[in-house]
Amino acid sequence: RKNSAANAIGTGATAGVDLGDRFTQICLLDAAGSVVLERRLPTRKEAFERFFRALPALRVALEAGTHSPWIARVITALGHEVLVANPRRLRSISGSVRKSDRVDAEQLARLGRSDPRLLSPITHRSETAQVDLALIHARDLLVRTRTALAHHVRCTLKSFGILAPKHSTESFAKKMRPHVPRALVGALVPVIDQIEQLTAQIGDFDRKIEAVADERYQVVARLSQIHGVGRLTALAYV
């Protein structure tokens, strides 16, 4: 069936890909704009490789989202032209009365076929840059978690009439333990222990991020010369 579908599609065809967490709907239009194939695939790398490898070179339109970076890389590697649509320019899809996966996939295909500029296509960062940005995001999550835990400790102590002096987040765990009364040891010491562990993990992330900046993003050193711009901010910007 795949070989016959590939023969029917021919050259100049366009695919619309409506991405979902579990399943993805695909609509293929031939050069004349007729629907020649509709398929529902699991949103898995092997399923996309198997499907698109059997087809001639296509123009593929999909909307930017959580899965679009890796899917765009997979489809591009198989020799297809990929257009990653800017969601802000796809209100005609999101506002459609007849909204469904099949309708969205067909509309993406037709927009990509008629004029790619209608999609305001974006370019995803490279896989390496995406991995490096994941380090920054993970560190940020740990910092926000640590801040929330420290705030909880201070507020709990304050509700018992204990106003602990301010400490830096790095020394918080060590300096705060003496201020915890015996009655609150069971409630707060495990939280303080967690803060201490998070501080160590954040330090590990800082060292990894420094290494990434030095090895792959030399421009970070130049940006960091600007007053008030640290290496972490510069790397995130890059």
What does this structure look like?
The chain has 238 residues and is of the alpha/beta class. Helices cover 53% and strands 13% of the residues. The protein has a five-stranded mixed sheet with strand order 3-2-1-4-5. Helix 2 packs parallel to helix 3. The longest helix is centred in the middle third of the chain and has 33 residues. The relative contact order is 0.09.
SSE layout and pairings?
Layout: H1 2-9, E1 14-18, E2 23-29, E3 35-42, H2 45-53, E4 59-63, H3 68-77, E5 81-85, H4 91-94, H5 101-114, H6 127-159, H7 172-176, H8 185-216, H9 219-223, H10 231-237
Parallel strand pairs: 1-4, 4-5
Antiparallel strand pairs: 1-2, 2-3
Concise synopsis of the structure shown:
By secondary structure, the protein is an alpha/beta fold.
Q: So how many helices?
A: 10
Return Rg in Å. Answer: 26 Å
Mean pLDDT score:
91
Please give the alpha-carbon distance between the first and last residues: 46 Å
Share of residues in strands = 5-15%
Secondary-structure class: alpha/beta
Per DSSP E runs of 2 or more residues, the count of β-strands stands at 5
| Share of residues in helices | 40-55%
Low-pLDDT runs: none
- Spatial strand arrangement across the major sheet: 3-2-1-4-5
Keywords:
238 residues, alpha/beta, 5-stranded mixed sheet, 10 helices, elongated
